[in-house]
Amino acid sequence: MNLNQIFTNQRTGNNPHTIASRTDFQRDFDRIIFSAAFRRLQNKTQVFPLPGSVFVHNRLTHSLEVSSVGRSLGSIIGEFISESFKSDLTEDSKNFYLHNLGNVIAAACLCHDVGNPAFGHSGEDAIASYFERNERDLKPKFSEKEWADLVNFEGNANAIRVLAHQQQGKDEGGIQLTLTTLASIAKYPCEAIARQKGIIHRKKFGFFQNEKETFLEIAERTNLICESHEPHIFKRHPFVWLVEAADDICYNIIDMEDAHRLGIVSTADCENLFFELIKSENPDTKRVKEKLTSISNDNERISYLRAKVINALINKSIETYKDNFETILQGNLDKALLDIFKSNNKTLQDIESFSIEKIYNHKAVVEIENAGYNVMYELLDHFIPSVLKSKDERKSYDKMALKLLPNQFLYENGTEYQKVLGVIDFVSGMTDNYATDLYRKIKGIDIGMTM
Fold first, then answer.
1. What is the mean pLDDT of residues 320-338?
2. What pLDDT, in 10s, does the model give residues 218-274?
3. Number of H helices, E strands in the chain
4. Vertex 198: Cα angle to 251 and 332 (nearest 5)
5. Where do runs of H (alpha helix) occur along 55-198?
6. For the chain, what percent of residues have pLDDT higher than 70?
């Protein structure tokens, strides 16, 4: 890949470039911050049920922290590229890598989860399984590729739709981000029909059929390496690895800190795992030990160690990215940056195993996943059968159901695929509380007027 040709300030919606005090990539960050999709993340589950007496992370606070880590990664790698490849770069490119790569990665990290539905991964599972469980009635209504989108519903692909799709009555191009920022969140740049486990850029998929043309424009303007035209498969953009690393660093470590605050993980277990990870990368832990002796509050001790661990993982990710840079540019790296490190670091492996056993399988987490699955499934079942009927076929209960769908999600003149995507847009965009509240109302559990 040519480092001069993998970024652009072109936006979705074909808006002309404007002169402003902020760069185009700083404007991306600001547009995401002020978007409704980002704001709704404040009431979407990260891991633990919301709300509670202890403030744990939700999707919004997680995204803000990932963005902070991503900005550091992008800024340092930008300096590396501008210095190491200065003879190959144009002046515009040098300026971009030196001053704006950090902004791109920060913006991409900020919006990497906007396509995720309520209730964590169980929300994704509920949407996909709704179509699987109703295959006999629904599959004949869609093309093979459209059906693959629905039965494999994926938050990463939905993020591209949320950010770039023109809803009914709204402006073209969604929130109109640069194609560079959008390329940076495309972890799986392929169609759903091309999914293949064991291949990092095809483990899931990156765009719905409805957004295919938008994604092809992203690929063309950022010069993604094309692996196949039918089905469409691309190699990852080089910036994706930094966004993924920032996310991996945060959720691996922050989930442990949240579990400690909730009393799920003991102070001793959390402290020992964090300390050992710091020690594995820097055997000289004298200053860390001295600092810990001055902190008696358990939460503060864990917070201090968490900060040291994140710093160590940032440094390791930067080192790994640099070591594999040529392979990344060729599109041939086959393992995430943190996974490369994890394969040689027993402590990080222990943290992962400990998290699976003690955190992700904890009763409270399993309960919210089960509840969330049922809520999301039932909401889809309330709307999709009605929206797929022609206006002449709809009974009074169908019409009443569709009155609950806001106009921007109704595509009455669209295909059946587009009508269903409209319902998915509505349901997947809901917060945990709103989805639960609407579910209780349509099921008759709560009856009465609320605004």
1. 96
2. 999 999 999 999 999 999 999 999 999 999 999 889 888 888 888 888 999 999 999
3. 22, 2
4. 90
5. 59-84, 91-99, 101-110, 121-133, 135-138, 144-151, 155-164, 179-183
6. 95
In this structure, the chain runs to a length of 451
The torsion angles phi and psi of 243, rounded to 5 degrees, stand at -65, -45
**Which of these, 240, 237, 228, lies nearest to 191 by C-alpha position?**
228
Half-sphere exposure of 263 (CA within 13 A, CB side): 4
Q: Do residues 387 and 419 lie in contact, with contact meaning Cβ atoms separated by under 8 Å?
A: yes
Cα separation, 261 vs 263, in Å, equals: 5
Over range 388-414, report the average pLDDT: 93
Q: Whole-angstrom Cα distance, residue 364 to residue 265?
A: 13
Going by C-beta distance under 8 Å and a sequence separation of 6 or more, which residues neighbour residue 76?
318
Q: How far is CA 60 from CA 33, 65, 320, 364, in A?
A: 10, 9, 28, 20
Query: Would you say 348 and 342 are in contact if contact means Cβ atoms under 8 Å apart?
Result: yes
CB count in 10 Å sphere of residue 346? 11
| Centroid of chain to Cα 101 | 19
Give Cβ neighbours of residue 404 (< 8 Å, ≥ 6 apart). Answer: 383, 438, 442
Tokens 């936006």 identify what position? 11
Summarize pLDDT for 188-213 with one digit per residue, the tens.
999 999 999 999 999 999 999 999 99
Helix (H) or strand (E) holding 319: helix 298-323
8 Å CB contact between 202 and 46 = no
**How many whole angstroms separate alpha carbon 442 and alpha carbon 375?**
11
